[in-house]
Task: structure prediction
Amino acid sequence: MWRLLLPVLLLLSGLSQAALGQENEPGSDNSSVKAASPPETLISPRATMETFLHAMNDIKRGDPQRIDDAVTTLDLSDISPLVRRERGRDLAWMLLEVMDRTRVIDTRRIPAGQNGKPYLFASYKNGTIRIAPMEDGRWLFEREGVAKLPLILDELSQTKRVKGSDADAQYLPWHLRLRQQIPERFKQKGFLLENWQWFGIFLIILVGVMADKLVSLLLRMLVRRWKSQSASHEFKALSDRILRPLGLMVMAVIWWAGINLLGLGEASLLVLLLAVKFLASLSGVWAAYRLVDIVAIYLLRRAHSTESKLDDALVPLIPRTLKIFVTVIGFVFIADNINVDISSLLAGLGLGGLAFALAAKDMVQNLFGSVTVLMDRTFTVGDWIIVGGVEGSVERIGFRSTRIRTFYNSLVTVPNSKFITADVDNMGERRYRRLSCKLSLTYDTPPDRIEAFCEGVRELIRQHPYMRKDYYQVYLNEFAASSLNVLLYVFWETPEWNTELRERHRFMLDILRLAKRLGVEFAFPTQTLYMRSEEMPSPAETHLAQSDAFDLGRQEAVAVVADSTGIGVKPPPVVFPPA
Result:
């Protein structure tokens, strides 16, 4: 359990250090440590004003990326980092609109010194816009005036521009242009938001839900049509709603884009935008998972259509790898959108690197074990293996472990690290499947019957289609206590165990049928007791002289050899005909 909890604790530690790193980030608030030297673009009130005006003019000329340079001139330390980017862009456009409705700016009259009092641009009923020095040496538009920009812009809404023309309004954000056209009664602030913003939220939610339902319906119809045209039972088993997360992702994207168009305040924008970003991230990861499942089925079908078993072992690893990759990307995406510093997070994780390495030692060994199995082709999915007392068929090869289905249908999980040093007996790699046994015949079986039986068994081997024809042995091999044992040593060329069992069954039944036709009986362990009632002959009548006994034995042996192979004849070695 501690091995599972340790990475989680390290991750939480990294997140906390990342948050602390953000709190101490220079420029996040006015209590930060002074920078060594401020940038040239913010070194004085004149430099700050020129930076802002040049950036906004470049945007109008077709360079939208310059908005970030304009935002750097604003003191946004009071705004949450989670929405600072979106809120800062809106405030930059508001500031430009206020300036265009106030006066023509001559930057030569703005102080260029690095020291001095704050530069006052203009005072309004609802606030004052000034450029003031920060503790780190930068000159920025004061946060008090930046916070009052929405009210100042409302104050100047009926004032004509003194700089530029009404055509410049096309560069403003959509919600600013819309707000200028909305009657004053809809701008009244009710509960937290203005009336027109509540209506906009309702409309955006409605459009998002309708888009979700429509996209989900179209995707279900597409999946059904695709399944009806597919001949694969794996694809037919897929749910019609497998692409459902794509509808949620479309809905989240619409909400995300819509919320940015409403010009909400910081508090409202923080809550809604964070929730929508999280929903979009989760739906994206979920949708990617579903697409990976479809890709996995396609790859599995391709793997089954090939003769190689290596791809059968590799294919299950691919979807797991892709899902891990998608999870990491989703985590980074969420962290980026909630303004978590990834570098600080990684640094925090690095502090516990030693403990993590100790906890992950077994995981690394298992990973190397899986690589060893795949590279050395020790076994593949479907092979019958014996390792460490576990015997069964390989069902799945994973990153950490291999699952083996035993012949009594239990599932044994073996860590892959064990395959680095363990002896693996791969029964699935056998070219031939052997049968070695003894056929026990009764002692009263005549020799000619034994010869006929052995040759008949050899012919069965030659006639059976799955039997190996270039090597087999069928010979009388042993005088046992209660039987004459014939050695049967044969091999099958079968692709798998089920066929082997079927062919072995057929071959053994043919041996029984052959024995019945030849009148050969099989023996079983017995003891026979003979009882004689007549008197035993005297030793003188039964014993021969030693020389006579030797002569009798030699004569009978010569007669047997003459009847079997012939006197002086040497049979050639056993040669099997080509298969």
User: Anything to note?
Assistant: The two ends are 60 Å apart (CA to CA). The longest strand covers residues 433-441. The chain is about 50% helix and 10% strand. Residues 362-429 form a domain with the SH3 type barrels. fold (CATH 2.30.30.60).
